[in-house]
Amino acid sequence: TSKDSGKNKFSVFDQEMNRHQLRRMSLEKDLRKALALSEFMVVYQPKWDSLMNVTVGLEALLRWRHPEHGIISPVEFIPIAEETGLIVPITNWMLYVVCSQNMRWHNEGVANVAVSINMSARMFEGGSLYEVVEEALTRSGLAPHFLELEITESIAMNNMEETVAQLTKLRKIGVRVSLDDFGTGFSSLGNLDEIPVNTLKIDQVFIRKSKMHSKKAIISNIIAIASNLNMEVVAEGVETTEQIELLQSLGCRVMQGYYYGRPMPVHELGQWFIENTAS
Ligand code: C2E
Ligand code: MG
Ligand code: MG
Ligand code: MG
């Protein structure tokens, strides 16, 4: 009867919820040990100047090598890390690892570019971000302008005063700042000039749908805003030559996406630089 099938549907839904909750709980438990067990790995994706044909930056992205589940995407574990507060020790660890790796690339003559790290809102809450960044720079020996912090509009808007205060301190010593996933945060543009930012990163949803006139108009306007506020612009998620041609015609030259390079582990990046550096 219809009553029975309704009941069944509900229990299937229930089981689905349960499975999801169980995985989440078990991941949360494992996440607490992941740092100590060295299960995190950093991969790096190039930011490419499509006019000069050179790498102008790298973005550091986190991967979790889970002993049973294999590689787990940050899309799944970062929210858990944020809710539990584990994101703070993880990001602190990452700051040092990434600065040291970038210093190594500089010393070896492999690369001379800034590497960016994604910041979560939690990093701006304790008030210790400046100290952690400074320590990572000092201990690694990396010059501050070779480190970039990626923040989202929601971080900036949530706690505007505190975020701006901390970013201003960091900008003063030369650390770079970019606004990630720009255009998706419904931020009031009226505040944009008050956030100390070097670069706007156009969110990949606009690039993916850039054939649509409306999305093209948004891309074009983000590029105009960046230019008028003396900021640089990077297009995220670039996958096709059509997208590259369109972005170039709109005045965007720096791009990040699978077309140019996927996020790669350290041992692959050396070779990638050799193959992608004009001699
Ligand atoms: P994000 O910072 O916007 O990073 C860009 C994401 O887009 C990365 O996914 C990257 O692999 C992916 N991507 C790059 N090019 C393309 C492309 O051409 N096509 C498509 N479809 N995707 C592309 P990933 O590594 O899975 O990271 C997802 C998100 O997780 C990041 O978005 C960031 O918000 C967060 N995340 C990653 N690592 C960290 C971290 O260390 N700390 C924090 N707080 N968040 C992180
Ligand atoms: Mg990012
Ligand atoms: Mg992004
Ligand atoms: Mg994103």
UniProtKB/TrEMBL annotation:
- Which keywords appear in this protein's UniProt record, sorted alphabetically? Membrane, Transmembrane, Transmembrane helix
Q: Is Ion transport tagged as a keyword?
A: no
Q: What is the protein name stated in its UniProt record?
A: EAL domain-containing protein
Q: What do the Gene Ontology cellular component annotations say?
A: membrane
**Top-rank taxon:** Bacteria
What fragment of the full-length protein is this?
Answer: 392 to 670 of 670
Asked whether the keyword Transmembrane is assigned, the reply is yes
EAL domain residues are 24-277
